[in-house]
Give the backbone structure.
Amino acid sequence: MDICIVPYQESLRQQVFDFTSNCFNELGKRFEPCGRHSFYTIIPQYFVQFWCMLSGGDIIGTVALKRHEDDTAELKALYLAKEFRSKGLGTRLLNKAVDYARESGYKRIVLDSMSQYTAAISLYNKSGFRQIDRFNDNIHADIFMELILKEEQL
């Protein structure tokens, strides 16, 4: 299985839209690139970094980082095609984002999710994320987590 993770490029735009729409449909959600998901139309401007996991040239996963505060990145768009789950690929995507955040000097990563996404929550817990208080106004989220990348110097 030839799988690689590449930075987003505009030539992948339609594939990202199709992939994200499929993932949202699976979750019972609607992908709205002309509405509340309009940031997908400006990926290079909205995200610090956005990656696509490819298999045979097709997108099978995505993950992104958005700047939340000067020293904090927010994990976004972590999706993996159903048939590729439980193979360590979600961890690989997550590690790509965590490594990038650490190398870029961020002190922590935050994320929001929904408690019904038990596999995702399990992945975050195994990767060292811990539950925190709400940090945004996302009405759909009920789980908020952080991963400390750099402890403050005493």
Summary: Helices lie at 13-26, 43-46, 89-103, 118-126. Residues 89-103 form the longest helix (15 residues).
